[in-house]
């Protein structure tokens, strides 16, 4: 059963934010990670709307997306991200947009992780 996005939870806010920026997420994935990352981002978008809560797998995928957006793997010569990063012009306005997207994802994901952690603690009590 899909998650109720009208619920006022951190996870619902995360899903709504990512879906509101779905085109930006997909464009960033393609720009920074190539076609494989575009497919991965599209799969993540689909999985988010059908998830009842933040699962470990979703958390891992969202963290991987955040790593892509923050250029975490740039410098590893074995990764496509390094070559694609080299093609970016630092003065291009898209770079600022990528930073804003990464910052917002970090905030929403951190809130959802905290909520999930609290929920887990409460259910264990």
3D architecture notes:
- It is elongated and about 40 Å long.
- It has one domain (10-124).
- Helix content is 74%, strand content 0%.
- The protein is an all-alpha fold and 125 residues long.
- The model has no long low-confidence stretch (mean pLDDT 89).
- It is built from five helices and no strands.
- Helix 3 packs antiparallel against helix 5 (93-124).
How would you summarize the topology of this molecule?
Layout: H1 10-20, H2 22-50, H3 56-69, H4 80-86, H5 93-124
Helix pairs in contact: 1-2, 1-5, 2-3, 2-4, 3-5
Considering the chains and any ligands shown, give keywords for the structure.
single chain; 5 helices; 74% helix
Give a brief rundown of this model:
The chain is mainly α and 125 residues long. It is 74% helix and 0% strand. The chain has one domain (10-124).
Count of individual beta strands: 0
Give the amount of beta strand, in percent. Answer: under 5%
Euclidean distance between termini CA atoms: 26 Å
The low-pLDDT segments are none
> What share of the residues lie within helices?
over 70%
Question: What general form does the structure show?
Answer: elongated
Tell me which oligomeric state these chains represent: single chain
Helix/sheet category? mainly alpha
Task: List the helices and strands in order.
Answer: HHHHH
Number of helices, where a helix is a run of at least 4 consecutive DSSP H or I residues:
5
Q: Could you give a short account of the major beta sheet?
A: none
């Amino acid at each position: 059963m899909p998650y109720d996005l009208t619920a006022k939870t951190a996870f619902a806010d995360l899903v709504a934010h990512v879906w509101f920026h779905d085109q930006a997420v997909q464009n960033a994935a393609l720009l920074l990670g190539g076609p494989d990352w575009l497919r991965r981002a599209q799969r993540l978008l689909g999985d988010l709307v059908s998830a009842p809560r933040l699962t470990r797998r979703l958390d891992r995928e969202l963290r991987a997306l955040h790593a892509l957006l923050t250029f975490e793997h740039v410098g590893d010569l074995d990764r496509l991200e390094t070559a694609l990063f080299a093609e970016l012009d630092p003065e291009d306005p898209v770079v600022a947009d990528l930073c804003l997207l990464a910052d917002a994802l970090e905030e929403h994901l951190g809130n959802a992780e905290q909520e999930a952690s609290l929920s887990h603690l409460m259910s264990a009590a």
